[in-house]
Amino acid sequence: MKRILLLGGVTEALAIARTLGPEHIYSLAGVGRVPTDLTCEVRVGGYGGAEGLAQFIRDEGIDLLLDATHPYAAQISHNATTAAQLSGIACWALRRPAWQPQTGDDWRDISDWAELIEALKPFHRPLFTLGREPLQHLHEIPPEQFWTLRALDVYPGNERCEVIGARGPFLIEDERELFERRQIDVLISKNSGSTATEPKLEVARERGVPVIVLQRPMLPGVDRELLTLQETLDALATFVQ
Question: S-S: 53 plus which of 83, 148, 179, 220, CB 3.0-4.6 Å?
Answer without folding.
Answer: 83
